[in-house]
Write a structure and sequence with these properties.
D-Maltodextrin-Binding Protein, domain 2, about 425 residues, alpha+beta, three-stranded antiparallel sheet, globular
Amino acid sequence: MSIRLGRRQFLMGSSALAAVAAFGTGPAWAQGTTLRQFFWGGQARADRTYAVNDLFAASNGAAVDSSFLGWGDYWPKLATETAGGNAPDIVQMDYRFIVEYAKRGAIAPLDEFVGGALKLDGFDADQLEGGRVDGKLYGISLGANSVAQLVNLSAFEEAGIEPPNRDTTLDDIRAMGEAFKSANIRGGIKVIADGSGSEPMLDNWLRQKKLALYTADGKLGFDADAAIEWFAMWNQLRADGICVDAETQALDTNGPLETTMVVLGKAAMMPSNSNQLVGFQALMQDTLTITNYPRIAAGVGGGHYRKPSMFFSIGGSSKNKDLSAEYLSFFINDLKAGEVLGVERGIPCIDKVRDAIAPSLNEQDQIALNFVANLGDLLGPLPPPPPAAAGEIDISLLRVLSQEVAFGARSPEDAGQYFVSEAAAILQRAS
């Protein structure tokens, strides 16, 4: 599913632009200029983004032609546009892809704008560092977040089962799954979605085992034995009816939130991110919350880390880089913009914005803020940026192999061996 809304100066911003013209605010060079923006997300994110775009137009006089797609559709579309030299002025970028896009010039370095059009006073140093590639700044973090498990509290209550907490282990998940089977609520809802194709969940599991998805020099940080163990673990959970079956999981298109297992009512838990609670809750009547991914054993931590939830970058072929930098600065600094955005994209990275919005946060926002701020022993160091080919390995290898194992086309042993050998080959070709 794709949703595309553009030319918002005609749809929603006409009054704002009229006010700008009437009062003469905004620099003359910005009057009549239109920036093109592209991001991934759902309608809740779009509504907030468009509202900020209207604030920017009222302040500056430059309109923003904005469009969005679900995650799965976003990256092929962005790759096509950047390859054709037609990148949007403002591009939403992810930590796993920023190295690839920076190294091929698809996004522009921002250093020349810092202190001028781009104000970064009070910006969290670790989040700023996350947007650097080879020492240059290519992305401005839009919020700190962490991977998280989305939990349907209403389903757990209906099943008469205590929901997971920060001490929940994989063995506990299995026990909860058996209890869900016995309760047989909502047409046989499972306790958890199939996470075998989730790169963040694999990454977390590896980190708890003192391994890594990727090393600092861009190599795989685990071997075939670990990959086999991963696929075998989920294959057994699937066979025992703890997680959803292959046909059900295939309904999740890795795109809009509406096709995910919790929203579809197929699972009571699924891998997510802390900043997504707001978007998920907007789609459901059930009460949702987030917690950490399960521990591999009692007392084991270190799998989580605080990462830039996403970045805004400037397209490498943009003809409006100065104005785009001003937009980025407005997006992260303006207090009214901060109130509109809340924590939907993560915890704001500028201290004054965090302080300004904290009193007005709703319950879901407060849950997200508190989760990211209180990871405790679950927290480990920020890993190095993934290598350029990480996106291909995630989308074209891990997700495909997870489905092949789920449908019985490959054994966990075959999938684990192939995953490591083919991923190594992909990394070698990319280097």
